[in-house]
Every structure is written in structure tokens, then in C-alpha cells.
Amino acid sequence: DEFTTIGGLITQKFSYLPQRNEKVSFDGFDITILRADSRQIHSILIRIDLQNPKIRFFELTVNNDTHNKNI
What we know:
By secondary structure, this protein is an alpha+beta fold. It has one helix at about 5-15; strands spanning about 25, 30-35, 40-50. A three-stranded antiparallel beta sheet has the order 1-2-3, with helices on one face.
């Protein structure tokens, strides 16, 4: 599956729109929802297990919009 947003990926992993403090783990990534409402995920914490053999390359691109200035 391909996603255009991290929120789309996370929603697919949960099979629903998660709420605050819910967690999901997959392929060496542990994701915790820090802030969400009934329509979207606003902030997350991602922990990466760099010892996981599935993680051979990691790239992160962050796109700030006018609603999110703190990263």
C-alpha cells in the first residue's frame, strides 16, 4: 500500500482513527499518538529500532505548514 500522509499510514495500521496515547508497532517503528481529534491526527511520537533488520535505510522529510511550527 502507498500513502500520501503519515496519518493515512497510521490509520491503516490501526484500522480506525486512533486517539491520544494509543500505540502501534510495525517493522521496527513504534508510534504513539500524542494529539488527535475526531477528524485527524495532529502529533505523534515515532521511535525507531535501528537494530531491526527490516530497517536498512531511513529517510525523514518534514513539511511544516502554518498550523504546525514546532517539531
